[in-house]
Amino acid sequence: MFAQEKEKKAPHPATTAVLTWVKAVKSDTLTPKDTPFRPKDLVALKSASNNEGDVQKKLAEFIIENKKGLHFVLNKKNPTKGFLISDDKKRLSMVKEGDRWFIDTLASLRTIKEEAQKETVLADIRALTSNLEMYKNIGGRYPSVEQGLKSLVKKPNSSPRPRRWVQSIDSVDSLNDPWGNPYQYRLVDDAPQISSLGPDGKISKDDIALSKIVR
Question: Can you give the three-state secondary structure of 23-44, one letter per residue?
Fold first, then answer.
């Protein structure tokens, strides 16, 4: 669906537009000419900024953090749309109007939020896996699938009971992913595997898990 731009000679105009804007924001020299936002997007940014702080600045900081390897990928089915990519991840959605490329603000904010949620999931999975290792070291084995991750919050009263037990998670709320769904727990070859069902809360392609078990 997408074809990566060839930037050997010069960056794509969409890349240039965003980097010019980021530079202007960083140096506090922003002018209307440097702003890669359509009027309707500026209204959305102002509204979002009232609730979440300076969203333009946050977007600029997001690009600065992910600037390495930044390049544009065109939507082959719609040459007026595309994405800024770095580390093989979508960073900002872009749209062309006339001869200018603009940041598709609402789509970009969704992308940033989704990326942050995924990072939160991976951090949670690492932490939960580490707590399960401690549970095993203290108790002698991992909790059963039936006992589940709640065993980190409250001592199991069913078999197999741990020989010793220490509470490592304060609340069952910490066992939920950013979408409010419980993290999934299973044992594979007597090793714990934790995953999130993703935004849809169902077993599907958007489920999130670590590729390797943290030991």
Answer: HHHHCCCCCHHHCCCCHHHHHH
